[in-house]
Hints:
Blueprint: E1 2-8, E2 15-20, E3 23-26, H1 42-51, E4 55-57, E5 61-63, E6 73-76, E7 98-100, E8 106-107, E9 112-113, E10 121-123, E11 126-132, E12 148-155, E13 158-160, H2 171-181, E14 189-197, E15 208-213, E16 216-222, H3 230-240, E17 248-250, E18 269-274, E19 278-284
Amino acid sequence: MKLVRYIANNSTGPAVGILDGETISEVPGSSGNLETIPLLDKSGLNQLKNASMTHHSLGDVRLLSPIDGSKKLLLLAANYTPVGGTLDKDLNIEEPEFFIKPSTALIADGDIIPDNSLVVNQVEEIELGVIIGKPGKNIKKENAFDHIFGYTVVNDVSGRDLDFSPNRKNPARSGWFDWLNGKWLDGYCAVGPWIIPAEDLKDPTDLKLTTKVNGEERLVSTTKLMIHNIESQIEYISNLCTLVPGDLIATGVAAGATDDEIYLNPGDVIEGTVEGVGTLTNTTGK
Length: 286
């Protein structure tokens, strides 16, 4: 069972549905908004599916991002021990380091990542995404999983070396904000293709993460290499701001064996797979 947002053929707008096999059961009156759906457990989702009067074949709809952009997009920087453990990297990160992306960064599985004239170099960052269900403030680690509705795949697309004026008076300060600016661009937060209910993913702490570009493997890692685990992330973030149903937490990008980044080229096809969740596919714009 999966939760999807989509536009059906000849429809007047987006909808939310329950995907079971190749059949989507539309949630009546959803208008494409998750609203209170993340408060439901799998039993509640089954009730929605059984009450549906409208059904679609998966092949007859265009999938949208499974989150509608009305809630927070919270993403962690780095957060992984390098594959193989041989990279000389400072892993002494005392607290989770996170930032926020705007809703205009959201795109769906199959969408093209827009070209931006300011971006000199561009990289993909495939991550496990956590969708909040039960709201909470000051959530304790031992209760964190009670607040998770489900999981998805995120590509935290990042622009490197933005082409601003080189004649800045404070290049160090500008460089820090340029890093953030490279995260916030339109279409730089691909999410999808769906949400897997938490009850269907029994152990998110050891999931294989695979990144492919044009069919070639670029990175294989596992969520067990997180520096700050999911519970720690939820505790830390909820101490700063209230988490509400539909909030997204992207749990950080896996680190390879070297610091060398391979930049994307126009037309590259990126496939990010999280074991047990799905594969998110996007193409870079030309």
